Fold this sequence. Notes:
With 549 residues, the chain is of the alpha/beta class. It starts with 7 loop residues before the first strand and ends with a strand.
Amino acid sequence: MSEFDEAxxxxxxxxxxxxxxxxxxxxxxxxxVMLDLGITFGGPNLxxxxxxxxxxxxxxxxxNDLLAIVLTHGHEDHLGAVAYLWPQLRCPVYATPFTAAxxxxxxxxxxxxxxxxxxxxxxxxxxxxxxxDMELITVTHSTLEPNAIAIRTRxxxxxxxxxxxxxxxxxxGDSVDDDALRSLGDEGVLALVCDSTNVFVPGKSGSExxxxxxxxxxxxDRLGRILVTTxxxxxxxxxxxxxxxQQQGRQVVLAGRSLWRTVxxxxxxxxxxxxxxxxxxxxxxxxxPEKLLILATGSQGEPRAALAKIAVDSHPRIxxxxxxxxxxxxxxxxxxxxxxxxxxxxxxxxGIEVITEADHFVHVSGxxxxxxxxxxxxWTRPVIAIPVHGERRHLIEHEALAKSLHVPxxxxxxxxxxxxxxxxxxxxxxxxRSGRLVLDGNVLVAIxxxxxxxxxxxxxxxxxxxxxxxxSVGNLLVEPRWHAEGVHIDGAASDGALEDAVARAxxxxxxxxxxxxxxxxxxxxxxxxxxxxxxxGKRPTVIVELVRV
Length: 549
């Protein structure tokens, strides 16, 4: 890419055409700065995989020219991959106090807390990284200390919004620094790289202050136990629930390690220090139902989270009864629908009342609805609009919105697109390798690796092991033995048919072929596959082991 070293480049390797795994690169004069390095979570199509992240190969190969990673905020989809990918990058990492506190806890889990230094920068800071003059601009979101970042260069200024909303009453932290955004607009903004998550949502996203009042009204005068589940990173929501509990004379129990980590990090950064004492789930004891308010993880149906266990009454210390209330102060993230609805069903089958955002005003989004996007464009007045942080349909709708606002150019890109911002008109000038890595246990592997393809095949069709014992001249010495996992084998196939099929296939080979181990094993494998496909319509993985004596 040396031919573009003198151009100002935007290159997303994650987060364009998807929500999650954000990895954004800006390049100039052969140097690079990265904004965010996040993860997403595995699903049913990735058995055994919990974490997915962007493939950083392009920038890892140029890590000597990567000057810094700057984190916009502390959500997993923006910082969660740092602990796994930083060893390939080994550059300085910059974060505000709360985000740094969260990151240090993640580094400790993988043993990097001593090896990697996190540079803590104050809110509103302005600092230089090579040819990039960086300024943090305070915005609001669904966690503490979210930042837009203004990147000033000799070729123009880029405003990278990160995740944001325009909340007039965020409760914790400052409101959006609209004066700074207006000033940038007055200076001249070359490009606005902007959140697209809620581009289809009309109006505004709503305020945490409004939500607190709504929850207070909803939960007042309840007699039974109350459980509220929300995103563990939403510090304002945590404070709201705790203060409501205090007002109602209830003890607040935090159920879930991620909630405790968030509270500890917030207190380390100077927040939540005026809250009453919080109980852990092993301190519930015999508190009367009307004196108990539980704040639990698991709003997205995570099977190992506290709520999933509570829903089926398998939690070792917390139990709900008929007449108790569970409030989902969260939205249903696409893909999590079935898991969440399963929890609804389990709770309601036990007579527990369930309230969601479909029933009552119990949640506000952390992302901008259309009116807030329009406001951001009004403040910054960019020459180029670049939609990010959305699936393809979000990006296309955001493109249409920007054009309706008369933004001169729109850079519609996907992961791996090298978008030249200046000099000259914005245009995609190249494509580079992008992709996904998964954390399989503690090993990073490509998402399209044979390991994962094989695991999906095993999950879908099962596996059959066959053992053959032959002498040195190719005679079967004993009947073939087999064992199946994840394959339904009964009736005719289990009554000698499988053994016979393998034996016929092997014994039908010519003598020279029976002396070739590979040919014998393949013949047995195909025989099993043909038989099971004929009887059951399944094509399991078949492994044949040959022992010669």
